[in-house]
Amino acid sequence: MQENRSPRNWKRSITIAVAVIVAIGVAFVIGAFLVGPARVKAEGGVISTAVLDMPSGILPVTDTNGNAVTLLVKIAETSEAREAGLTNVGAKALDTTVLLYAHPKLQTSRVRYDMTGIRAPLELAVIDETGNVVAVKKASTTAKSISVSEKHQWVLAAKEGLLGKLGIAKGSLVTPDDIRRIS
Fold first, then answer.
1. Nearest-angstrom CA–CA distance, 48 and 87
2. What is the distance between the alpha carbons of residues 55 and 71, in angstroms, rounded to a whole number?
3. 10-residue mean pLDDT series, the chain (183 residues)
4. Which residues of 4-31 are buried (b: 16+ CB within 10 A; e: fewer)?
5. I want to staple 58 with a disulfide (CB 3.0 to 4.6 A). Which of 9, 67, 147, 180 is the partner?
6. Is residue 2 part of a domain?
7. For strand 133-139 and strand 122-127, is the pairing parallel, antiparallel, or unpaired?
């Protein structure tokens, strides 16, 4: 018995297989660009470009018990950066994002910090010109702004509870003049 087999066109089969693999790869990449950012945003992992553009630094702090604490902070040192603050930073990203509002000189009158669009409750440590934390204020997610009437040169902002866990409270010593910039 003779079988009637036609020779297989390997070149054509390989071409089709490569085309299918490329199509699947392209679909995956397109899906990642469309779905990925939406997933990160939904999970609260978004950091605004304003915060990403701020310089980073390592800030030494002495808690109320005299223990040394080191914080990695983003520094809002320009008026534009201070105005942007932590607006539109996702709740999950706020777990590890600490912002230092740095003024070039002592603020002797009431200063309003915009809280529109914050994604999690915040706490703000108000720091005078000598580095002493003179007050800790809380801002809810519904707060449009928070006013600081105490004389201050810096404000340290973090997700509610984070500063407390680190022992940073009224009476702590924060030394922003000793900040070591890393970017």
1. 7
2. 14
3. 62 81 75 54 62 90 88 93 86 87 94 88 95 94 92 95 91 88 84
4. eeeeeeeeeeeeeeeeeeeeeeeeeeee
5. 180
6. no
7. antiparallel
